[in-house]
Design a protein that fits this description.
- By secondary structure, this protein is of the alpha/beta class.
- It has helices at 4-8, 38-43, 50-53, 61-65, 89-99, 110-120, 123-130, 137-147, 194-203, 217-223, 240-252, 271-274, 299-303, 317-323, 336-345, 366-378, 399-407, 417-426, 428-440, 444-452, 480-485, and strands at residues 17-20, 23-26, 71-74, 150-151, 166-168, 171-173, 177-179, 206-209, 230-234, 257-261, 328-333, 349-352, 389-393, 412-415, 465-466.
- Helix content is 35%, strand content 12%.
- The longest helix is centred in the middle third of the chain and has 13 residues, at 240-252.
- An 8-stranded parallel beta barrel has the order 7-8-9-10-11-12-13-14, surrounded by 7 helices.
- Helix 15 crosses helix 16 (366-378) and helix 18 (417-426) packs across helix 19.
- Keywords: Heme, Iron, Metal-binding, Oxidoreductase.
Length: 499
């Protein structure tokens, strides 16, 4: 047992101890290796870092990344001065707004969840979740693309019974939709990604587990149903032994698909996130008092992502095929050229994705890329190809969006922010409500399939949509629901209103 006084004596770069969940760790040698940089750790040197650590780290992150000899023991609780946490006026206001949320039965669409999340989330969480790269053109285009595709419904077909269930990579799914990976769930809700896991298990929806989850991988697996299908999203680590161990552990625990993110050799500049100053102006570690060049404007995304390997290339695909028998999907493909290379590389599919508009701004939407990529893949074998799936994500808010993508050739569609905002707003119950809205309990999918004249997903064909305007980036009808929650970027501001 270590006293708080003893721990407080180790508050410098030369000797840096911190407390996390009542345990004391010597992180001195880890300072320069920390993905978020040394500054944020030094802010809590000699003190309890749990509150800052918990929302953006899995519980076991510090245990896994520090040698056992750096695990110093427990803090003696009798020596710790009880600190009365002062709740800010902003937090009191936020809690009051949470108490005044609309009841779930008044939530009619996924836009509603986003509107509520925007109001009740802490500013830092909203900035991280909603931000996109540079001028945020692509994130808006992802949504607008679906408004440029029009239905061509068929009539006088018996649609008394319609079925929208499917299989995704051989796994049964109640919807032609999977939960796409979104990071740091605990920024928005104390239970983080577990809200998704529990709801998905109840309703037969497949969840993709993010590498950068707030909950640990095993915590998520332990919360799943015994027969629940899960996928894994992978950021490839510079240390391939860590990646190999992670992938093989996931396979041993029954994960059914490996989605390797290939569009992020470096994370994009997300200015909303950067302006939140992940390391705040109040950084107060003694070691920082006279330190120059302390950067405080990189945002959450930059702070957690420095481990990602920018050298990842096509030559690595055989290595991945050699370490796992899981289907391998490349997440972040945008061109027919790369789609064909993926097919030739022997992977089992691709995701047409621009990372939710968070990477290369003014990239085209996955939906727009789908037409060219489907045409290219048709020249290389059967279509649809039973051994090569084509998924799409980005901008999906309604079942009608999903049906448009399926008609144009997608195997299934990923939704990330839509389900994220559902649990940020209402926890697990919010995710279940989102599933109900889409179609787990006969709502949007049933209505749209009937009105299209399709009894099941196999009857969705390209002739049921008019995508001729998809490549025209002007004249899209305004999406009032999306626009009402979209928060425009802002410029640098003066410190005071009066000069």
């Amino acid at each position: 047992m270590l006293s708080a006084q003893t721990i407080s004596e180790h508050a410098s770069r030369d000797s840096c101890w911190i407390i996390v969940h009542g345990k004391v760790y010597d992180v001195t040698e880890f300072l320069d290796e920390h993905p978020g940089g040394s500054k944020i750790i030094l802010k809590y040197a000699g003190n309890d870092a749990t509150e800052a650590y918990e929302p953006i780290h899995p519980p076991n992150a510090i245990i896994d990344n520090l040698p056992s000899e750096k695990h110093l023991g427990d803090v003696d609780p009798s020596t710790v001065t009880k600190v009365v946490k002062v709740i800010s006026e902003a937090e009191n206001k936020r809690q009051a707004l949470i108490a005044k949320r609309p009841p779930l039965n008044e939530i009619l669409n996924l836009h509603d969840f986003e509107a509520i999340a925007k109001v009740i989330l802490p500013d830092k969480a909203w900035a991280y979740y909603s931000s996109a790269s540079d001028d945020e053109i692509t994130i808006r285009e992802n949504r607008a693309a679906y408004q440029r595709v029009w239905f061509r419904p068929r009539i006088l077909r018996d649609v008394t019974v319609v079925d929208w269930s499917t299989t995704i990579l051989g796994q049964k799914s109640s919807l032609p939709v999977y939960i796409s990976a979104t990071a740091l769930g605990k920024l928005g809700h104390p239970d983080g990604e577990l809200n998704l896991t529990r709801a998905a298990g109840k309703h037969g929806v497949i969840q993709m587990i993010p590498t950068l989850a707030s909950c640990s991988f095993d915590e998520i697996l332990d919360a799943a149903q015994p027969d629940q299908s899960l996928f894994l999203q992978l950021y490839v680590n510079r240390d391939r032994s860590i990646t190999k161990r992670y992938v093989q552990h996931a396979e041993a625990r029954g994960v059914k698909g490996l989605f390797i993110t290939v569009d992020a050799p470096q994370l994009g500049r997300r200015e909303k996130d950067m302006r939140m100053k992940f390391v705040g102006d109040d950084a107060g570690a003694r070691v920082q008092e006279n330190m120059s060049g302390v950067k405080k404007d990189e945002g959450v995304a930059r702070a957690i992502s420095s481990f990602i390997d920018p050298s990842l290339s096509w030559k690595d695909i055989p290595w991945f095929r050699g370490i796992t028998k899981m289907p391998i999907i490349l997440k972040g493909v945008s061109t027919p050229e790369d789609a064909l290379l993926a097919l030739e590389a022997g992977v089992q599919g691709i995701v047409l994705s621009n990372h939710g508009g968070r990477q290369l701004d003014t990239s085209r939407s996955g939906l727009e890329n789908l037409i060219e990529i489907a045409a290219a893949l048709k020249t290389r074998g059967p279509w649809p190809n039973p051994n090569f799936s084509v998924f799409v994500d980005g901008g999906v808010r309604r079942a009608s969006d999903v049906l448009k993508a399926l008609a144009l050739g997608a195997s299934a569609v990923g939704i990330g922010r839509g389900f994220l905002y559902a649990f940020c707003s209402y926890g697990e119950a919010g995710v279940e409500k989102a599933f109900k809205i889409l179609g787990c309990i006969q709502e949007e999918f049933e209505m749209n399939l009937r009105l299209l004249g399709a009894r099941n997903l196999n009857e969705l064909v390209p002739e049921m949509v008019d995508a001729s305007a998809l490549q025209s980036h002007v004249g899209t009808p305004k999406d009032n629901l999306f626009d009402s929650t979209y928060q425009p970027l802002r410029l640098a501001e003066f410190k005071t209103a009066k000069l």
